[in-house]
Structures are given as C-alpha cells and as structure tokens.
Amino acid sequence: VESAMRRRINETHMFIGVTMIDPSSAYIEAEVTIGKDTVIMPNTFLFGKTEIGEGNVIGPNTIIRNSKVGNGCKILASDLEGAILENDVDMGPFARLRKGAHLGNHVHMGNFGEVKDSYLAEGVKMGHFSYIGNAQIGSNTNIGAGTITANYDGEKKNPTEIGEDVFIGSDTMLVAPVKLGDGARTGAGAIVTKDVPEDTLVVGMPARAIRK
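Request: output the structure for the sequence above.
Response:
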C-alpha cells in the first residue's frame, strides 16, 4: 500500500512538470508541493509541509523537512529542517540547515557547514567547515572556512551581528555577543571577543585592531 501511494504521489508531481531521475528512489510525503521544471535526483526525501519552487535541482542524497525553497536553487547531499531558502541558493554537499536558518538570494554555502537560527543576507558566501548560530549576517559578506560563532556561554544563547561587505578570515572564532561593522575584516585564526568598528581589520588572540 505504501509503495502504491508513493508511486501515485510521484506521478502527480511529474504530470505537472517535475522531473524525477529515478522515481522509485524519491520519497515524497503528501503535503509537499513542488514547482514545475524542478529536478528531483535519486535518494531524495521530502517530508512534512515542505514547499519547493520552480527550476530547482534537489539531491541526490538530500533530506528536507518542513522547509521552504525558492526558485533556481541547487541543494546537493544536504539536510534541511525548518529552514527557508530564497532564490538561486547554492549549497552542499554535506551542508546542514537547522530550525530558523534563513538563506537570502544568491547565498552560497559550502560543504560541511551548519546554520541555525540565523539570517544570511543576499550574496553571502559561507565557506566549508563553518558553524553559524544565532547570527545576522549582512549582504555580500564572505565567511572563511572554519569560522565559528561561539553563541552558547553555558547558560544562554548570545547573538552575533555582522554587517555588509565583511570579510571573515579562515578559522575565525566570534565569541558572542559581538558586532562587526560594515566592511570589517578579521585575520586568519582571530578570536573576536569585542565589537569591531566598520572598515577595521582585527587580528590575533584575542583580536585587536591594526588598521582602518
């Protein structure tokens, strides 16, 4: 019975213009909506009240639960739960979005990254092996590989605010609560424990300003 129902659901999507490379390996629950010209790759699982727009490529090896995906996105071998993706987002492989993650238009998220309760504005590039939690990140900011927002102090979650056109160097640790102004930069391996003014470069452990 389950197999017959799954086949019926998949056929319904394909009749309205969704492409499934291997329908037998696509698991889609009844409440899921998918726009036309979206391609569902093998071994993709879509659960709950997931909404997927038009012209996307989903999978292979992707799990999406109760999330909303815009148009023109590419999601490769990733796990999404309670997340929102706007248009033309590129993420994966092995990326994870947890509840409250919101990626704006044209955001790129590399492999082995994780985002939780955070907003990444338009054009943000998030390098691989990074964790972003309880953060607001301005447009066209670059987040280097290995960047961590240390958002939990043992008692509560603290916010990180990053402005526009910021460059976060690889292996930076942002110890929340902390704010970085527009155009700020951090050197590789910096540990940022205090607010950084706009257009200021900070380096070291703990980070200190060395140039405007």
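Residues 2-15 form the longest helix (14 residues).
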